[in-house]
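QA checklist item 7 of 12: single-chain prediction sanity check.
[x] sequence parsed
[x] length recorded as 267
[x] structure emitted
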Amino acid sequence: MSRIGCHVSISGGIDKAPEMAHEFGCEVMQIFTRSPQGGPVPELTKETIKKFKTECTKYKIQNTYIHTPYFINLASINNRIYYGSISAIKTELERASLLGAKYVMTHLGSAKELSEKEAIRKTIEGIKKILDGYKGSAKLLIENSAGAGKIIGSKFEEIGEILRALKNYSFLAGICLDTQHSFASGWEILDKDIGLKNVKLIHANDSASEAGSRKDRHEHIGKGEIGMNGFKKIAQFAKKNKIDLICETDYPGVIEDIKILKNILKS
C-alpha cells in the first residue's frame, strides 16, 4: 500500500522527528540527518539510534527517507566539491543504514563548465565511487530536478542513461520522482526513458510555476498548476504501484496536504 508523509525538521533532535511526524498525520517521513547547508556532521550515538527506532515504532512511522545536503554536485570540476559530494552521499547511506531508513535520495548537481555528455560521465563515475564497497541496508535514489541552468537530472533521458550505466549496482534502487520538478521541466516521457518500475518514491508537491518553467517552486496540493485532478492521477499511480508519497510543503499547510492525499487514496 502507499503511505503518506512529509519532510520533518530535526532541529529538536533526530529522535524527536517521529513524534512530530505523527502529530502532522504522517505514516512515513523524510528527514535530513545533518544541516543541509553543510558544516559538522553530528554523531549518531547508540543511544540516539535506539531512541529514534523506538520512537518510530511508538508513533507507527513505517518508513524513513533521508535527503542528502544541498551542496551535492557530482558533475563539479572542483575536486573539493566533487569528492566532498561523494563522501557526503556515502556518509548519508551509512547513517541511513544505522537509523533503519529505507532510501537516501540525492540531486546530482550542475554541469556548469562541462558538456552534458562529460557531466553525465563524471556523475556515473561518482556514483560508482559512492557504491563501491558499500555494504549497508539503505539504498540510493536519484531525484529529478526542475531544470534551471545546466542541472543534471532535469531530463528523464539523462537519469535513464545513468541508471542503465549502473544497472549492476543493486544499491542504486531507482528514482525519487518529484511531481513539481517534473511539471516544471516539462513532463517528459517517464516510462520510455526510465521505466515506471524504477519509481520508488514520490515527492508530492504542487507547482507554483507553470509547466516547462524550469523553476523550483513548490505549492500546496490542489493550489498550484498541477491541480487536484493531476494529483488524483498521481495518487492512483502510487497506489497501484505501492509507492509512498512525501510532501515537501511548508507548515502548517502541509498537514492539510497530507489529509488531502490520504482522502484521495481512500477514494
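[x] summary fact logged: Strands lie at 4-7, 28-31, 64-67, 103-106, 139-143, 172-178, 199-203, 206-207, 218-219, 244-247.
[ ] second reviewer sign-off
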